[in-house]
Amino acid sequence: MSVNDETFPLPVTAVTCLEDRAQVERTAAVELAAGVHRLRLGPVSALAVDRSLHAALLDEDGAPAAAGKVLDVRLVRSWRPPAPVPPGPDDSALRRRVHELERDHLAEQRRQERLQARLALLGQLAADLLREIGEGAALGELEQARWTRELDRVDAERESYGEQLRASRLRSVELAADLAAAEEALARAEEEPAELLAFVELSVECAAPGRFLARVGHLTACALWRPAYRAELVGGALRLETGAVVWQRTGEDWSGVRLTLSTARSALAGEPPALAEDRLVLRERSAQEKKTVEVELREQAIAEAGPLEPGLPGVDDGGEVRVLRADGPVSVPSDGRAHRVPVSVFETPARSEFAAAPELSDAVTEVVSFRNASGHALLAGPVDLVRGSGHVGRGALEFAAAGAPVRLAFGSADGLRVVRDAEERREGAGLGGQRTLVTRTVRLHLSRFSAPGDVAERVVTVRERIPVSEVSAVEVRLRKERCSPPPEELDAEGIARWEVPLPPGGRRTLTLVYEIAATAKVAGL
Fold this sequence. Notes:
Blueprint: E1 2-8, E2 12-17, E3 22-32, E4 35-44, E5 54-58, E6 68-79, H1 93-139, H2 144-189, E7 196-206, E8 210-220, E9 223-234, E10 237-248, E11 254-262, H3 287-291, E12 293-294, E13 323-325, E14 330-332, E15 339-349, E16 351-356, E17 363-371, E18 381-387, E19 390-397, E20 405-429, E21 435-448, E22 458-465, E23 474-478, E24 489-490, E25 495-502, E26 507-519, E27 522-523
Helix pairs in contact: 1-2
């Protein structure tokens, strides 16, 4: 086997971004002679998953090479700390500032060590001088002038060096604070070179010499994507731009790669669910249970009952893996920040309505209805809403298959408001009060505050729900003769709908009356 000491570059050429990781594909061109060779390719991201590593040898046209095959492929990691060299002329001013602060801080620390050593020597000198004075006084030697002069000189030097030491410590504290701030700014602004590197060792066998393409693929962590949209409403048409927000901090930049976006969840195990016993027991009902029927009110969310709820959901693919592709080469730096990548754009006719759901909100929302003409499914995600006047807010788009109808809320109308007032009356009915009758009256007060010069009439679609009974012992009746005006439509989900025209400054009141009748056996109503 011939071992090539040269390291061949292995750039990233294609990326499939999954929900919480990425599948990276790399390609390197190598010139090989006949025989068995061991190649060193890289460097690659140290976050590459070893068990997902695979390689293939291709010819120059991208087809599997008939004259070569891969014998072995592995990842080899090495730790290489950055060399402690001073910054060069190409380094940033911030990095040079950090280097100067480190140098000054080290110089102050060394100065403090020298001052402390000098003070220690002066302390020893003062102790020796005091011992000499004591011994001389015991022997009757009186050199008061010399002793005074020496003590004054030692005290003066100790005071001088002590003041220098205090000033040096204060300067050292200031330099440490400035150095910490500069290092934090440098960490935010610039990326340090990776200390942990990985290389791909590829063993190949060639039957004939030639030029080959080594293609290597692997999974890597610290990469994800989420869908994002931009909806622009112009007249009766809607322009919807589909994009993807990509984050990656794999340690290497993706420059000019083919980007594919997938909703596959490779981290989930493909094992069947465990089976558990589910025992069904049949028993006779008691006499009390035979006499009563237990009912309860249950809330059921209906998408047509009001505007869509805002929020940032996760990747919702409708239970099927969806794949989207960027049109051209994409570059995503490894900075951990959000980068938006365009995917598709379409323009389609749209119908707008002012929808009110008074039970949920007192605001009237403009809802735009259109069909998904993008050619692919629209995943759930945030939408930037744009009108002719500019950006008006952010909404949420729910999952919609290709060609399916879509409803998108464009925010509330400032000049329209609705106030809901409900009252309930409960009484007995039938002979001896054997039935319970609940009468509910809902009044909806609509008002419009228009700007000067606004003379156009607006139609508000008002939706109010009534209960829907699932048992024969409870009956719900709409009293149309007491409604003012009667609803124009009442669907199977119990949603009553009105189309209310409102002129500028106009006001309308809608009254909805319905009854809930239950037999004496019903409990819980």
